[in-house]
Amino acid sequence: MNIKTKLTLAIGILVAMIVLLVMLSVVNLQILTATEPNSPAADLGLQRALLWISIVGVACICTGVGIWVRLPASISNPIKEITGGIQEIANHNYEKRLDLGNNQEFIEVSKNFNRMAKRLADYHASTLSDMKAAKKYMETIINSLNEPIIGLNNELEILFINDEALSVLNLKRTEIIQKSAEEIALRNDLLRRLIRELVSHPGETATESKEKAREKKEPLKIYADNKESFFQVKYMGITQPGKNGVTLEKQGYVIMLRNITEFKELDSAKTSFISTISHELKTPVSAILMSLQLLEDKRIGALNGEQEDLADSIKENSERLLSIIGELLNMTQVESGKLQLKPKITKPIELIEYAIKANRVQAEKFNIQIEVEYPEDKIGKLFVDSEKVAWVLTNLLSNAIRYSSENGRVIIGARQTDTGTVEMYVQDFGKGIDPRYHKSIFDHYFRVPGTKVQGSGLGLSISRDFMEAHNGSLTVDSELGKGSTFIMRFNS
């Protein structure tokens, strides 16, 4: 029975009951009217009329209440079941089915709903199976990689991890998948080191930030495969198109560890080889210079012009070779971690005077005027290894002289900032350095393309290493055609 038939039947019954009540009242009223008021039959008729009217009235009321209670429920209950079924489907319960009784309209609705639910269940099952297959395939690929890989979401929950990473971290897969990496890091030092880069600390000091940057730059030392291994950590953000399909939204991170143990061992072997060769070369070069000094001694005879030119050439090349050997030795000290600082209290002006004295002959050779800028106000003293810092300043001044045109000028000076940082700088007015190479010039053996001035490409890299060893920095400010300024900063 459909809803229309139900409503028609209910209204018809109510109307029929009301008509019956009215007719009964009219008939009994006619009978009472025709009866003598004072006769005994009148009282009996009145009582009979009231009885039938009461019975029919009560029946009408009961019928109306019954219809009022049952009719809305027969309509609202199926609607509630449909609403509940839709909510179940929305909650991915595709096994939900509806049985809405004999209402014709709702029978059709339930059939369509059940057909839709079955199709969704079939689609979900096939999609789930494809997703499981894709996930398994992805896990197989990730586990086949020899490099440790860890995937995390924005809340730093571990989404996936391969066997290599589990082995390195000494963890079990079941213990960490879908778990917070920060909580696991509380009991795992290596994982804490890995996610430190991803965790933000609002109250982090400049020193802590610098320490994090240093740790990020240095290889990670891990005891793996029964030996000490070195890994380079790489962080990558996971992004995907957002709701608008265009803007990329960050969904998490991937941490990759590249095993560089083999390269580290080769680098150590290279450093050891260079150190050994440098030491071996230093002795014969020093012997050549000593022999040359004896040859130039007038007491054993004067040299002719050609011999003096040859002696000057030998001396110049020997000193250049000795300088390169010194740079190589300094480099091997830094790379092997054997660089030892012997700090003492030093005035910046003393370092400047030393650098000028060391480069006076070279400046006179190219007729370069060295200007000193030093504040009249008292400048703070430095607690540094004066020998290493003087080497850096001497190297910068030597470069400035070599890259300046003849009859030019070079400025060397020191200053103290409002924050208490002491800066020493060397400025030249040569052709300058292309901004593309401002970072590369501090790499080992790098030389700006097209440079005609001779050099090993080690001086600036060693200078930077010496400054970083003092918790300082070495930067360059340069424009083509306007010269260069190298700034040494000593953080207080």
TrEMBL record:
**SMART domains, sorted:** HAMP (SM00304), HATPase_c (SM00387), HisKA (SM00388), PAS (SM00091)
Q: Which GO terms describe its cellular component?
A: plasma membrane
Any GO molecular function: phosphorelay response regulator activity
Q: How does it sit in the membrane?
A: Multi-pass membrane protein
Annotated Histidine kinase domain residues: 276-492
Keyword Transit peptide listed? The answer is no
A Pfam family in this protein?
A: HATPase_c
Protein localization: Cell membrane; Membrane
Catalytic activity entry: ATP + protein L-histidine = ADP + protein N-phospho-L-histidine
Q: Which EC class heads this enzyme's classification?
A: transferase
Q: Which UniProt keywords apply?
A: ATP-binding, Cell membrane, Kinase, Membrane, Nucleotide-binding, Phosphoprotein, Transferase, Transmembrane, Transmembrane helix, Two-component regulatory system
Q: What are the HAMP domain coordinates in residue numbering?
A: 73-125
Q: What is its EC number?
A: 2.7.13.3
> What's a GO biological-process term for it?
osmosensory signaling via phosphorelay pathway
Question: Which PROSITE patterns does the protein's record reference?
Answer: HAMP, HIS_KIN, PAS
* Name this polypeptide is given: histidine kinase
UniProt organism field: Bacteroides reticulotermitis
